[in-house]
Amino acid sequence: MQLENLAVKHKVFGDGVILSKSDKYITVHFATADKIFVYPDAFEKFLTVASGELPAEILADLDVSRATKDKILKEKREENVRSMMKGIVIPGKEIVPESKDDDQHDETEEI
Prior knowledge:
By secondary structure, the chain is of the alpha+beta class. It contains 2 helices and 5 strands. The protein has one domain.
């Protein structure tokens, strides 16, 4: 299916028409301007098809995109676990032991 000339809607820009599609991007013409979106991700968050149902091509591309993202996230999690097991600190993934002092209160303290 050709996505060119497919009528779409955007939450902010309103009604538009797809002008062109490349492997990773689509260009949509709106009344105010032409906008470029990441394809097919834009159909998860920003764009809907004016007719209501996503064409099979877009659905298939979304499935491939989600599977690729899931695979990358799984690989990153596994890499983080391997690094932590080796004692390598990954920025933002440091394990900080909880302080017991924060949980204990002085029972003799006056209220």
